[in-house]
Specification:
By secondary structure, the protein is α+β, with helices and mostly antiparallel strands. It has helices spanning 6-23, 27-38, 41-57, 68-87, 124-135, 140-147, 151-168, 184-194, 198-202, 222-227, 229-235, 288-298, and strands at 205-213, 217-220, 240-247, 250-258, 263-274, 277-284. The protein has two domains: 10-168, PhyR, sigma-like (SL) domain (Butyryl-CoA Dehydrogenase, subunit A, domain 3, Up-down Bundle), CATH 1.20.140; 184-298, Nuclear Transport Factor 2, Chain: A. The protein contains twelve helices and six strands. It has a six-stranded mixed β-sheet.
Length: 312
């Protein structure tokens, strides 16, 4: 017998809304931290969303007051280190080379932002320690508590990171992703979207496709999409159009809205095509930091609408 979760879903949504409101002052800083950790805006957004889910889910386990900023950064740090362990299980989290850099002065760190292109030269724990202490001004003692390290170990990891970054500060990031040929299903998606043809659009999806409105809602199945997100899209008073772009190494459809004053980027869609049908898609609508980064990269105006539906 199927057990419905509606009685639990409603109060859970209310609690999530209160949680989102409480952490709102820390969202931008969290996103910047995740961007520096991952080095890619798409991965940063994924890490932010994973962090928020874990942070919300773990709240009931704490019986003491929480420093929300430290709590979120700790969750992000541990989530990123865990992901590193899964992908690279045999690589060390840290190195144990002797620290030899003289750090009496601050000249080597006068331009912190210039170091972001070489942060990925660091092992994961060094990267976390360096960013928390140097870029986000957490004290070594606070970082020790966040990561389960001694204060001396934090300072040693920071020192090793400084040595590595000082040696490689002149190196740039020259990696470039290979361009891909347009998928014919995505091309048909664009055509149907720009004609606002819901029938042609939904015909491209598997019946049980998942539509993830990132950080806001999941819709399972085409009929649920028709009743909810697609109905709201059709009711929007302003015209929309979509364009295919490759941004930060990922193919995405940029959706522009013309409000009569200015056409601007308002959301993005990333469909996943398998065996000629769309099995899932991700809609980035309530992700202002990511939208702003993409708009700056492409060179277009952007209008964002906050982190959740109906946010004032």
């Amino acid at each position: 017998m199927t057990e419905l979760m509606d009685p639990l879903s409603d109060p859970a949504r209310e609690l999530r809304r209160e949680f989102d409101e409480r952490i709102a002052p820390h969202r931008e800083g969290l996103w910047r931290y995740c961007l520096k950790l991952t080095g890619n805006p798409w991965d940063a957004e994924d890490l932010v969303q994973e962090t928020l889910l874990k942070a919300f889910g773990r709240l009931s386990f704490y019986w003491q007051p929480l420093n929300l900023r430290a709590y979120l950064f700790r969750m992000a740090s541990n989530a990123w280190i865990d992901a590193w362990r899964r992908v690279r299980p045999t690589e060390p989290l840290d190195t144990h080379e002797p620290a030899t850099l003289d750090t009496a002065g601050d000249d080597a760190f006068a331009a912190r932002d210039a170091l972001r292109v070489v942060v990925d030269a660091l092992p994961p724990r060094q990267r976390v320690v360096f960013l928390l202490t140097e870029a986000f001004d957490f004290a070594a003692a606070d970082v020790a508590g966040m990561l389960g390290m001694s204060e001396g170990a934090v300072k040693a990891a920071r020192q090793r990171a400084r040595v590595t970054l000082a040696a490689r500060a002149s190196e740039g990031d020259t990696r470039a992703g290979a361009r891909r040929e347009p998928d014919p299903v995505v091309e048909r998606y664009l055509d149907a979207f720009n004609r606002r043809d819901v029938e042609a659009l939904t015909a491209l999806f598997a019946e049980d496709a998942v539509n993830e409105i990132v950080g806001s809602a999941d819709e399972i199945g085409v009929e649920v999409m028709r009743r909810n997100s697609l109905a709201e899209w059709l009711a929007e008073p302003h015209p929309h159009r979509a364009e295919r772009h490759e941004v930060f190494g990922r193919e995405v459809l940029l959706v522009f809205e013309d409000n009569g004053l200015e056409e601007a980027l308002v959301w993005m869609v990333a469909p996943r095509v398998e065996e000629g049908v769309i099995r899932a898609q991700r809609i980035y609508c309530f992700n202002p930091e990511l939208l702003t980064a993409v708009a700056a990269e492409v060179g277009v105006p952007v209008r964002t609408r906050g982190h959740w539906y109906g946010q004032p």
